[in-house]
User: Which sequence fits this backbone?
């Protein structure tokens, strides 16, 4: 099952609680979903990285953490990095890096290379819509409303809370079915990254939303 988190435009990736508008914008925030482990006090706590910046990292805990001592964040297949707990609230925790700038940059770049499509999804124009849709996942069907979408993904509000797996199918009348995967969740709102190439999505939606076609092809048809 996928962990839940807030959409990228509302979640602060820095570990410290923001002190004001300038602090919130001090570091570029990146929304991501990567499984990892926190190693501390002879324990290994599974978690998901939900966003990060050059200033810190936010994770969703699969079980209570409860350690304020030296901690290592380990991502399978990637380099590990030393971190320090900054705050913990329910199943969310924020960490400061306990490493030098070069180590931090290398760690962030390794995650970008592992999931480039997630890190780049905001490069495509998003159009606000209110379209009825259905979301299929793991044998479950959820009625929903598409709030906005681009050639790379969509923001969707579920009519009722529904347990979803990481792979989903978004079905929109008139347009068909769009395979995708969850990249964030906040209560009844979800973010879906389409698995088909942006050019294919633009071809399917461009007649109704010319801005999406223009974003990919450079011209409105």
Assistant:
């Amino acid at each position: 099952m996928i962990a839940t988190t807030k959409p990228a435009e509302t979640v602060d990736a820095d570990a410290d609680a923001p002190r004001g508008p300038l602090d919130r914008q001090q570091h570029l925030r990146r929304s991501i979903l990567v499984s990892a482990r926190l190693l501390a006090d002879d324990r290994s706590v599974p978690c998901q990285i939900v966003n990060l910046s050059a200033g810190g990292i936010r994770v969703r805990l699969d079980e209570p953490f409860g350690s304020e001592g030296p901690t290592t964040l380990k991502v399978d297949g990637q380099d590990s990095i030393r971190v320090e707990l900054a705050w913990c609230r329910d199943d969310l925790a924020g960490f400061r890096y306990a490493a030098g700038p070069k180590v931090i940059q290398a760690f962030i770049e390794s995650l970008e290379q592992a999931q480039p499509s997630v890190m780049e999804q905001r490069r495509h124009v998003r159009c606000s819509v209110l379209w009825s849709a259905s979301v299929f996942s793991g044998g479950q069907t959820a009625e929903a409303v598409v709030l906005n979408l681009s050639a790379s993904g969509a923001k969707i509000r579920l009519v009722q809370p529904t347990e979803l797996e990481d792979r989903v199918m978004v079905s929109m009348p008139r347009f068909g079915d769009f395979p995708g995967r969850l990249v964030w969740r906040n209560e009844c709102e979800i973010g879906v990254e389409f698995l088909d190439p942006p050019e294919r999505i633009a071809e399917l939606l461009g007649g109704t939303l010319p801005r999406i076609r223009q974003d990919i092809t450079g011209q409105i048809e």
Confidence is low (pLDDT under 50) at residues 1-26, 116-122. The domain at 21-121 is CATH 2.40.10.220 (Thrombin, subunit H). The first strand starts at residue 30 and ends at 40. Helices lie at 21-24, 101-114, 116-120, 198-205, 210-217.
